[in-house]
Design brief:
Helices cover 38% and strands 27% of the residues. With 168 residues, it is α+β, with helices and mostly antiparallel strands. It has a four-stranded mixed β-sheet with strand order 1-2-3-7. The chain has a three-stranded antiparallel β-sheet with strand order 5-4-6, with helices on one face.
């Protein structure tokens, strides 16, 4: 049995597909969701300061619920965060997509400048100076490609670990 339903995610609308199968007499539901919609939720939680934005996937409905301390967005139903059905969308640092990614790139692409990169990240405004440094080395576009591919891969792995099947 499969069903396709349109879900309103507040900031976006997406289509989810529910697939049901049976394990003995127990019905198991697998939520399928568009990868772009998961990516939008990741961007949302990382757009504000720490804990300013929260997005939660309600695994029982396929709906992503949003909450922001900076605006009036508050779509997380009471009790969902304590529910087994709630899967909180992680921040980039929880997936090692912050400075860890910078140092991985530096080690692979410009190992001779690794210490310079470490020095850059010892002060405020590091990302801006890091990008300026990469531009001076003419590898800024390589960084953007590396970062994009790494983020997509990490987010797909997170979805797999959380038994979220993706529709591309």
């Amino acid at each position: 049995m499969a069903g396709i339903q349109e879900r309103n995610f507040g900031l976006c609308t997406c289509e989810t597909t529910n697939v049901f199968f049976y394990e003995g007499t127990k019905q198991i539901k697998i939520m399928k969701i568009k990868f772009d919609d998961i990516m939008e939720a990741f961007f949302f939680v990382n757009a504000g300061g720490l804990a300013n934005h929260i997005a939660v996937l309600d695994n029982s409905t396929g709906k992503v619920c949003w909450h922001s301390e900076d605006s009036e967005i508050n779509e997380i139903p009471e009790g969902l965060l304590d529910s087994e059905d709630a899967i909180e969308i992680p921040r980039k640092n929880e997936l090692c997509l912050g400075t860890e990614l910078v140092f991985e790139f530096a080690g692979a692409k410009i190992p001779d400048d690794y210490e310079k990169i470490q020095d850059i990240f010892n002060n405020r405004g590091a990302y801006s100076r890091f990008k300026d440094f990469l531009e001076s080395k003419e590898i800024l576009e390589e960084w953007y490609k590396f970062k994009d591919e790494s983020q997509k891969k990490a987010r797909r792995e997170w979805c797999k670990e959380n038994e979220i099947e993706l529709i591309d």
